[in-house]
Amino acid sequence: MLTTLSGTTAQVGSPTSAAPPAAGAAGEFSAELHRLRDRVIAVRCGNNNVGVIATAAGLIVVDTHRSPSLMRALAERIATDLGRDDFRWVVNSHGHWDHASGNQVFPEAIRIGHVRCREYVAASTLGSPRSRWSHERRLSRLSQRLADSDPTSPDAERIRVDREIERAVVADLDGVYLPTPPTRTFAERTEIAGHGVTVQVIYCGEGHTDHDVFVWVPEERVLFTGDVFCSGHGFCFSHHALADAPRLVSVLDEILETGSEDILVVPGHGDFLTRVDLVRLRGLARERFEGVRPEKSAARFLSDHAESVGWVGAANRLETAMRRRPDRYDVSADEVAVLAERWLGRGRVDDARRLLDWAIERAPDSALLWGLAGDARWRSGDAPGARRAYERTLEFLPRHRGASEGLEWLRLSAGSPPR
Ligand SMILES: [Zn+2]
Predict the structure, then answer these.
(1) DSSP character for 183?
(2) In this structure, are residues 53 and 216 in contact, taking their beta carbons and an 8 Å threshold?
(3) pLDDT above 70: residue 103
(4) Labelling 394: which of 127, 281, 290, 377 has CA 20 to 30 A away?
(5) Can you tell me whether residue 39 is helix, strand or coil?
(6) Which residue has the higher pLDDT, 1 or 31?
(7) Distance 227 CA to ligand 1 centre (A)
(8) 121 CA distance to ligand 1 centroid (A)?
(9) What is the whole-number distance in angstroms between the Cα of residue 369 and the centre of ligand 1?
């Protein structure tokens, strides 16, 4: 529990307005503004944290929430609190939609992200009809849950907030949202310096995605970590060969070695963490990944080689190596699924599809792989192939929600294009 934070809760938007909210308006939702240090604030809206660092030359926003109108309302709240609205930089911790969908609110800002974050955001399918339909379904599920819950319970309040946020997302998906990728990218690290406070943006290795970055403000002892940590007790990714624990540990070493005792950690979602949590998480990273053998992983091999020689070259190299030593590499469905999701996210749909076909030959009863094969086929415009793959998924795992939803969408859309 942090006792040094001063939090204020404010209604954002115009709840008393007589007129109905305009299309894309955020409507009424609550946001907590936490002044973490003199020059650093965090705004929590729903379960998302948005960071702001004030420099002499402008404001830096860390992550931009779930939709343009939500982010616009938060930006107004931040500007009112700080007495300034010179938003000059945006940093995306990673490209997931719930962290980058408000980027377009800052068209003049320099948007900073990992080079693969740019690919990920540029390939976003968030604005597709299928995605809008999926968010509308989520909105109606939230309304149903709210109707079923005790209206005075804390749970009902949480669902109400989530529903208002989801309502804003759905409204923005009706032609307002535009994928707005980072404009300034890097592979290892970059910094914003020379404006009274130095801000380091550091790639922390594959984990939650293949492009997670930390934002570290050493003079203020504040670290923004995106979705790498789910809490002070674990990571938002499994321990497998597509996570780079040694790199994460070395980045944490660098931050902890600064000696600051009162480090504040702002994760992408939920409660803030402390130095004690970081030390624990570094220990966990060492411990849990000890048995992971990246040199034995076929998915690791394909991931590394495909970056330079593409899918065909990587697959040929792997097949050659496996012919020479059949026991050299393990094909893990879980790891292949992570890699396929990453490639799909970055718009490398053909490579993902071929990777999944290759893996399904070796693990033909994996619902995980079949479900993703359905997504890959749908993304490449092959509706009949997607239908067959989703049906196979349900044969192996009848409760697979993604496959049921995929089939329902294919019925409703009668093969409309994926984007
Ligand atoms: Zn994420």
Answers:
(1) S
(2) no
(3) yes
(4) 127
(5) coil
(6) 31
(7) 5
(8) 12
(9) 21
Which CATH code, of 1.10.10.10, 1.25.40.10, 3.40.1550.10, 2.40.50.140, is assigned to 294-413?
1.25.40.10
- Ligand 1 mean position, distance from CA 30 (Å): 22
Q: What is the pLDDT of residue 23?
A: 29
Return the structure tokens found at 46.
């729903």
Cα of 347 vs centre of ligand 1, distance in Å, is 17
| Cβ-contact 174, 183 below 8 angstroms | no
Q: What is the pLDDT of residues 287-311, one digit of tens each?
A: 989 889 999 999 999 999 998 999 9
Q: What's the 238 CA to ligand 1 centre distance in angstroms?
A: 13
259 — pLDDT class (breaks 50, 70, 90): confident
CA of 319 to the centre of ligand 1 (A): 33
pLDDT tens-digit readout, 360-415: 999 999 999 999 999 999 999 999 999 999 999 999 999 999 999 999 999 998 75
Ligand 1 centroid–CA 208 distance in Å is 7
Q: Parallel, antiparallel, or unpaired for β 234-235 and 87-91?
A: unpaired
β-strand 234-235 against 229-231: which pairing, if any?
antiparallel
| Span from the CA of 99 to the centroid of ligand 1 (angstroms) | 7
| Tokens matching residue 407 | 């089939």
Which CATH number is 6-125+179-288's, of 3.40.50.300, 1.10.760.10, 3.30.420.10, 3.60.15.10?
A: 3.60.15.10
pTM score, whole prediction: 0.91
